[in-house]
Design goal:
CATH architecture of the domain at 32-179: 2-Layer Sandwich
Order of helices and strands: EEHEEEEEHHHHEHHEHH
Number of strands: 9
Strand content: 15-25%
Structural class: alpha/beta
Largest sheet: 5 strands, mixed
Strand order of the largest sheet: 7-6-5-8-9
Shape: globular
CATH topology of the domain at 32-179: Nucleotidyltransferase, domain 5
Radius of gyration: 19 Å
CATH class of the domain at 32-179: Alpha Beta
Number of helices: 9
Distance between the termini: 55 Å
């Protein structure tokens, strides 16, 4: 008898059984997409995907998803934006737009010079607290952020990259900085579902480039640790 796992995602019900076969095919047939290897050593990795509403974490062991170690947490960037404006409203000021918050989080020089130091401090302080609590909850779910390679992806991870690194809570981080990574991934999945050979498409270069970037980051981290 098949079991259907239902996940309540903010009034939306996702039935994982519907996509079980597709995900199994994705993670087993095309192992090169998720292989991390350096100098002949294969790494178990964990993926942290930062979305608008949630942060989803999953561990991969021997190229396979470990479904006993996965979590979906409500620490998306929308939660951060709301927390920032809660703090802003408590001072009697009006809400700050998301675009301005993003500019300040990215340390955009024009934004830093245009807005008051008080507002900037609220945004930066709240972002630091948000990231610390997010990582703490991920650790509470059983993820080892210090010893295991952790791949951060999604727009939220790009936006909060500096804040994640500043915490010192992630020992071996890898960031997928390509803002088009999701679109390329869906194209890859589309090609697979339609029987196309991904190694004969431009997407093969995407996979190789991602692996090369990841290996370069691992090499740099190993050199820094040995220095």
């Amino acid at each position: 008898m098949k079991k259907t796992i239902s996940i309540d995602h903010g009034n939306r019900l996702i039935k994982a059984e519907t996509y079980k076969a597709k995900f199994a095919h994705y993670f087993t047939k095309h192992k090169d997409v998720i292989r991390f290897e350096l100098n002949g050593r294969q790494y178990a990795i964990q993926i942290v995907d930062c979305h608008v509403f949630t942060v989803d974490a999953l561990q991969l062991n021997n190229f396979k998803p470990n479904m006993t170690l996965c979590a979906s947490l409500y620490w998306g960037v929308n939660t951060l934006f709301q927390s920032i404006n809660d703090q802003v409203r408590s001072t009697g000021a009006r809400d700050i737009s998301e675009s301005i918050i993003e500019e300040i989080l990215k340390s955009d020089p024009s934004a830093l010079s245009e807005y008051s130091q008080k507002r900037i401090e609220i945004i930066i302080t709240t972002a630091k607290a948000h990231v610390n609590r997010m990582l703490a909850e991920i650790e509470q779910k059983g993820f080892d952020l210090i010893e295991d390679r952790t791949v951060f992806m999604g727009g939220g991870s790009i936006l909060l990259k500096d804040y994640i690194l500043q915490t010192g809570k992630v020992g071996k981080p890898i960031f997928i900085d390509d803002i088009h990574a999701n679109a390329k991934g869906y194209r890859l999945l589309y090609d697979m579902q339609n029987g196309n050979n991904i190694h004969n498409t431009s997407n093969a270069r995407v996979v190789n480039n991602t692996q090369a970037t990841s290996n370069t980051q691992i090499q740099n981290q190993n050199q820094n640790q040995g220095a």
